[in-house]
């Protein structure tokens, strides 16, 4: 297994941890889309350029690890790995209030509300969604088993533990959303070598 902790090359709004002929692994800053949105061309993929594509994505306000593909075949294999839940993802977060010391599972559907309702993504409707959580001191370790949009944010808010900075779901104001994709483990799409990456985060440093 290849295990990489930290960053090797810095750029504006992202840091490159690993790069070869097939994939690129980066640590994305908050406030940057992974892929273009409607009327929003600026994103991680466009800033990196070179024809990279995203087999998965992080929300704009979530920071952390993203793996990008440099070829159609790498994109196809990685997309299937994410769909088949063969990629191990772990996030760090801070909520207010925090849950009690311990661990648990949030098993609540997450989906889109009708167009006139707000917020658009909410708990209790839509597709099944599962998130494992563990309190580790002042941090939450969060593992989304499914991959619904805003799943972790919606799940924690549904328990009365909204993330700090997540005002959309009732969180206290902060200069950033306190949610970070900390760990990513997957098989290389071409060599099938097991890869492991970690990237720490300080939620309270400007």
Overview of the molecule:
The protein has helices at 44-48, 72-83, 151-158, and strands spanning 2-5, 9-11, 14-19, 23-28, 63-69, 88-93, 103-107, 110-112, 121-123, 130-136, 139-144, 179-187, 194-198. By secondary structure, the chain is mainly β. The protein folds into 2 domains: 1-88 and 185-206, 2-Layer Sandwich (Pseudouridine synthase), CATH 3.30.2350; 95-177, Pseudouridine synthase. Strands 1, 2, 3, 4, 5, 6, 7, 10, 11, 12 and 13 form an 11-stranded mixed β-sheet that branches. Strand 10 and strand 11 (139-144) form a beta hairpin. It starts with a strand and ends in an 8-residue tail after the last strand.
CATH overall fold name of the largest domain: Pseudouridine synthase
Going by CATH, the architecture of the largest domain would be 2-Layer Sandwich
Shape: globular
Low-pLDDT sequence parts = none
Number of domains: 2
Report the CATH superfamily of the largest domain: Pseudouridine synthase
Domain Pseudouridine synthase RsuA/RluA-like: 52-158
Keywords: Isomerase, tRNA processing
Protein name: Pseudouridine synthase RsuA/RluA-like domain-containing protein
InterPro entries: PsdUridine_synth_cat_dom_sf (IPR020103), PsdUridine_synth_RsuA/RluA (IPR006145), RluA_PseudoU_synthase (IPR050188)
Q: How would you describe this structure in keywords?
A:
206 residues, 34% strand, 12% helix, two-stranded antiparallel ribbon, single chain, mainly beta, 11-stranded mixed β-sheet, 2 domains
